Amino acid sequence: MAKFDYNRPAATAKRLLDRFGQTGAMSRSTHGGYDPETGPTDPVELQSPCTVALLEFDNRQIDGELVKIGDRRALIAPDATFEPDAGDVLAVASEVLQVVRNRPLKPAGVIVLHDCIVRAS
């Protein structure tokens, strides 16, 4: 029996987010390191454009702990150069949001989209 090709649903998700979503940018700060010859190194700021759809949570989904009032759901296409992670910053239009959690939809190891909880910074 042939295995299902999840690259097609991933392409469909990307196409729908391109059509109905918005352009955004993710950024992540990584701590500097230490080079024994030159000393401390500067932190590195990673940035990547992304395609995102911002959605509101239903009241029944707000538990006051993981999902708080004002949190939003960000569906992010897997076209960014790095996967969103807690603490990353997502900029969409004039909003700056912090990623609280990312639950990637990745059946068979193929990332179809990133389902993130984001919070105003």
Brief characterization of the structure:
The protein is mostly beta strands.
Placed side by side, the strands forming the largest sheet appear as: 1-4-5-8-7-6
Q: How far is the N terminus from the C terminus?
A: 48 Å
Helix coverage percent of residues? 10-25%
Q: Write the H/E string, N to C.
A: HEEEEEEEE
Structural class label: mainly beta
Rg to the nearest angstrom? Answer: 17 Å
Average pLDDT figure? 91
- Strand content is 35-45%
Largest sheet: 6 strands, antiparallel, barrel
Weakly predicted, low-confidence segments: none
How large is the count of helical segments? 1
Net shape: globular
User: How many beta-strand segments?
Assistant: 8
Structural features, described:
With 121 residues, this protein is mainly β. Helix content is 12%, strand content 45%. The strands form two sheets. Strands 1-4-5-8-7-6 form a six-stranded antiparallel beta barrel. The chain starts with 6 loop residues before the first helix and ends with a strand. The model has no long low-confidence stretch (mean pLDDT 91).
